[in-house]
Amino acid sequence: MTEVAKEVFGVAPAQGSVEKWTLSTESVRVELISLGCIITAIKTPDRHGHFADVVLGFDDLESYLSNPRYFGAVVGRVANRIAKGRFTIDGQEYKLAVNNGPNALHGGLRGFNKVVWTSEIVENGVKFSHCSPDGDEGYPGNLRVSVTYSLDKHTLSVHYSAHTDKTTPVNLTNHSYFNLGGQGKADIYDHEVAISAQAYLPVDDTMIPTGEVKSVENTPFDLRAPALIGSRLKELPGPGFDHNFCLWEPGQPHEERWCARVVHPESGRVLEVSSTQPGVQFYTSNFLDGTLRGKGGASYPKHSAFCLETQNWPDAVNQPRFPDVLLRPEEKYSHTTHFKFTVV
Hints:
By secondary structure, the protein is mainly beta. It has two helices and 27 strands. Helices cover 4% and strands 40% of the residues.
């Protein structure tokens, strides 16, 4: 049985009260706030039954209001990068704020992570809702969106739903940073990762996909068998992983499938992820630099966490060969991701 509790976390300027929700079972405790649908804590046991918080974040609302690295947040309307902050729909060009080098990232200057959502209790969890008005951050259409978190035993399910009155790109994900040794640990080099992808997307020097869908065979991106993150990072030419792994390609069925498994051998903690989305962005916190102070005063340096952001492929709105990212008025946007926490 899942216990669901609510309390006030704080007050966001010009937006009002921010609620904190806690979902608890015998094996997992998840804490969330209505600002940005942020997961503020996930507490799970190691093989000896000792609980630790395995996601990075902050202790106070003020830090989450700025949250420059999107800790735990739902990002949108479009997660990841859009090249040069521009796209065209039916001959009309739309321009977005450029907030990541020359590109748009994670919904803009005031994306969904900055918004206080309305919330309501549902079976085993909480449902957050938000209406993004036409022209919000440059995107067309009034978009009504909901994100539902539910906890069943040791599995956290996240269901995303949206509909619009004008064609618009939509690509939602959760941006939690995990360290299965416990948040505040120095690095993730001792974690083992496996991702069930046959291909990945190479990127240019601004992290925009080149358009090539490349086989992982004989590359450092071949994670079909478990690999030690620390060893694999040494094989990469850049600062770390920040790439889309292709779970299915255009024309393949949109069915839920297992996509990733991460093991922390020392504690025995295991995270398994499955999703209905066509891609997962594997990111090894390359841009953390130790300057942010997190929960309990912890420092978060480079490679101190990993993200598994289930989503559509980056810049899909500008890449005709990528899975369709446009939501039309007659359609419903819907996808689900499951995070399963166990021990070995």
